[in-house]
Design brief:
This protein is α/β, with parallel strands linked by helices and about 350 residues long. Helices cover about 45% and strands about 15% of the residues. The protein folds into two domains: about 230 residues, Alpha/Beta hydrolase fold, catalytic domain (Rossmann fold); about 60 residues, no CATH class. It is built from 14 helices and ten strands. Helix 5 runs antiparallel to helix 6. The radius of gyration is 22 Å and the shape is globular.
Length: about 350
């Protein structure tokens, strides 16, 4: 009996030591610092400021602040994307732009547990976008800037470009959201079914069938979006190509250096909070092919060839439909939902070409 208790005590001590070691390592790799540069005209900033009465967060990276400003509208909505810039070091968009990663009200480093979630509406976020744009134009002395939405952030960027085209050289949206209709769900379903069948993965096929409702003409509607996206990651077409949800999303958050531990915890709380805001309901039932069929400025869509979170076929179709002074659809190989970080060389080259042909437009 005494020997058993002694062994149990040793096991508990070892377990406690392991937990402390993990926490110590987590503290060391979580200094809250962002990438910096040696160039005299460079800029690296991380800060929170008040925009229209609410906290907003900013990460700014630039090797030369005389470069054009690119406002990067975070995904989700409610998910900060600087963690990917932190993780994927080969992505050097700041060589050609002053890149402003924006955590809009109450999310990311701007998380505030006391924020009035009823104020997180589409109207308020669009008003914030205009105020942020005005701030950046004045601060960097530029008459116009670029706006780039990613995934859920394309809702905000697209609508902002439609409402205030005078503020922007061009709209550049990556992983454009087009519609939340059955078309989106059906394209995802077909992709996942093909992948799971090719693997002989009967378990995932069963989960897939349980996740959808079959409707007319061979189409499907997913029953729970988050379960559906989890399966999409298992199929390889999620946030990062051929990486699970844990590998593609959770690990970058846990291991990034750009957040302190408290900021990482707040990051997750902010993501969950955004699911309970009026914004979530306001973005239901959209179809931009009908509601925004034209823009007054050039518009460019970037998709990963394996992106079925925001199916690339729909983004390409929208590009064909939309009327604009100039437009283009760019399909990036060897990438899924996040081509800017998965294949940075090709994606940054696309952005460089867009800058060269639109800067003086």
């Amino acid at each position: 009996m005494k020997r058993t208790l002694k062994m149990l005590k040793i096991i508990l001590i070892c377990f406690a030591a392991l937990v402390l070691l993990i926490l110590a390592v987590w503290v060391i790799i979580s200094p809250g610092k962002i990438r910096t540069y040696s160039e005299p005209n460079s800029l690296s900033e991380k800060f929170v400021m008040d925009i229209n009465g609410a906290p907003n967060g900013f990460f700014i990276n630039s090797r030369d602040i005389s470069n054009p400003v690119l406002l990067f509208v975070s995904s989700g909505p409610g998910t900060d994307d600087y963690v990917f810039t932190d993780k994927y070091k080969d992505m050097q968009l700041e060589n050609d732009f002053t890149v402003v990663y924006w955590d809009y009200r109450g999310m990311g480093i701007a998380y505030d547990k006391n924020i009035d979630t009823d104020q997180i509406t589409l109207e308020n976020l669009l008003n914030d976008t205009q105020k942020v744009t005005e701030y950046l134009k004045e601060r960097f002395g530029q008459d116009k800037i670029y706006i780039m939405g990613f995934s859920g952030g394309t809702h905000i960027a697209l609508r902002a470009a439609a409402e205030h085209p005078e503020d922007y050289h061009a709209l550049i949206n990556m992983a454009q959201t087009v519609t939340d209709s059955y078309e989106n769900d059906t394209l995802m379903y077909s992709f996942m079914k093909d992948v799971f069948e090719s693997r002989g993965d009967k378990t995932s096929l069963e989960k897939l069938e349980n996740a959808v409702e079959h409707v007319e003409n061979g189409n499907v509607v997913c029953k729970n979006w988050y379960d559906y996206v989890y399966l999409l990651h298992e199929a390889g077409g999620g946030t990062i190509m051929n990486k699970t949800e844990f590998e593609g999303i959770t690990l970058p958050i846990l291991t990034c250096r750009c957040y302190t531990i408290s900021e990482k915890l707040a990051y997750v709380k902010g993501m969950k909070m955004y699911r309970r805001t009026p914004l979530s309901n306001e973005l239901d039932g959209f179809d931009y092919r009908l509601s925004i069929p034209s823009l007054e400025i050039p518009v460019y869509f970037i998709s990963g060839e394996m992106d079925y979170n925001c199916p690339r076929e729909l983004a390409e179709e929208y590009c064909d439909i939309i009327e604009a002074p100039d437009k283009g659809f760019y399909l990036i190989p060897d990438s899924a939902h996040s081509p800017l970080w998965e294949n940075p060389s090709e994606t940054c080259e696309v952005l460089r070409q867009i800058k060269e042909k639109t800067l003086n437009g």
